[in-house]
Each structure stands twice: as structure tokens, then as C-alpha cells.
Amino acid sequence: MSLKGILFDLGSTLIEFDNTEWEKLETASVKKGYDYLVKRGYRLPEWETFGKAFLTEFHQAWQEAQESLIEVRLPEWVTNFLIRYGMSSPDGLAVEFLKQYYDPIAKQITLIDGVKEVLGHCKKENLKIGLISNSSFPTEFHIEELKNYEILQFFEETLFSYDFGVRKPHPDLFKHVLNKLDLKPQETVFIGDRLIEDVSGPQKVGMKGILKYKKERDYSAPVVPDYVVNSLRELPEVLRKFK
User: Fold this and answer.
1) b/e map of 98-125 (b: 16 or more CB within 10 Å)?
2) Domain 5-17+110-240: which topology?
3) Cβ 51 vs Cβ 34: under 8 Å
4) Average pLDDT in the 74-92 region?
5) Cis peptide before 90 (omega within 30 of 0)
6) What confidence tens digit (pLDDT) does each residue in 116-147 have?
7) Which residue from 116, 76, 75 is spatially nearest to 99, judged by alpha carbons?
8) Residue 163 phi, psi dihedral angles, 5° rounding
């Protein structure tokens, strides 16, 4: 195998989104969106009713997306949710709600140790670099994060499930980016922190799958990574094995 390209996952691979207990973070996010709507003069159910319904229904929608691999686009979902609860939802309101919702999340994210150095190494090795990420949030949210951390310029291609419509491990996402980068699967590796989405998915289209181990992640699925790294800083040594 002559390595010519590397594709990265985003969450818990390049940027850590789980620095706060997710249940508490979700509640804080919905509450901030709720308070925004109240300040805008919208008549809403009591917070306890609204918050419980929002999280219950979104978790159900997300679980369905996990099974069907059809992504939940949050602006559309929020619009429909608000309408179900008797609110008119003018154009743009859902996105404004989501900006408020996302603020507590954005304030606690961090760049994973070694990201810039590893991306710089890949660039120096003349590897084509891409990113494939599952997200229900508008892509602009994540592009802004990549810009803020000054790593967007390393990627020749970025693809988010929000835009593409289906989630990893659907093979079409991997094939799309491989095609865009003019790469063959057998000359490309994928690295991410989940066995099904980031190892099994890439392997099924012919790529090598590298697992970036994340403490307390469920790794019970019967999937065998080609390599496992505990830190991104271990990646250059692993990539040399493919040369």
C-alpha cells in the first residue's frame, strides 16, 4: 500500500465536544434557546414542559437517524417542533434558536492535543487531507470552529452529514470524499474515535481504519481496527507503517 490520503473524523478526534456531562450541557443549551424565544415575545409552555418535550423528541429523532443513517437537520426539526407546540416559525427563527442553543456547547469545546502538529506532518508528507463528520447542526457552525482553531486550511475537502443527508457509516460519504480527492480506498486511511462510524465504515469501502481511543467510549462492537492510537501524536509513527 502506498499511502496518498488521510481522512479525519471531527468530534473527539480533532475537537473535543464532550468536556461537560452531555445531559447537563443539553439542558443548558435548550434552556438558552427557550429563554431567547421568551425574550422575543413568543408564548411558550412552561420551561419544564418545553425542555422535557424538546429533549425527549430530539433523542427519539436522533435514535431513528442512528438506525436509518438519514441525518436529522436541526433547523428543519426545530421549526417543526415549534409548530407542533403552537408557535409560528418565521424563516430564520430556528437558526437563531440554534445559535443560542449551541452557545453553551461552543464555550466548552477544546482542540485535541497535537492536532496542528499532526495535520502539519500529513501536509509535509504530501498526503491529501479530508474530513468527514456526522452533525445535525448547520455546517457553518463547524466551519467557524475549524477557522477559529486555525486548522481549516489543512483540509482539501470537508463533508458534513448535515449537507450530505446521510450519516457515517453510510458508504456514500466515504466514496464522495475519495472521489473529490481523486483517491483510491486502498491508498487512504480514516481515523476517528468510533468503531462503527470511523473504523467499520471506512473498512467496508476498502480503506484502513484507525481508532483514536477515547476513554469510556463503548467499544463492544465486533470491529477490529487496523491500528489503535491513544493520542494523535502517535499517528505519524502509524502512518509510516503504510509507506
Assistant:
1) bbbbbebbeeebeebebbbebbebbeee
2) Rossmann fold (3.40.50)
3) yes
4) 86
5) no
6) 999 999 999 999 999 999 999 999 999 999 99
7) 75
8) -80, -40
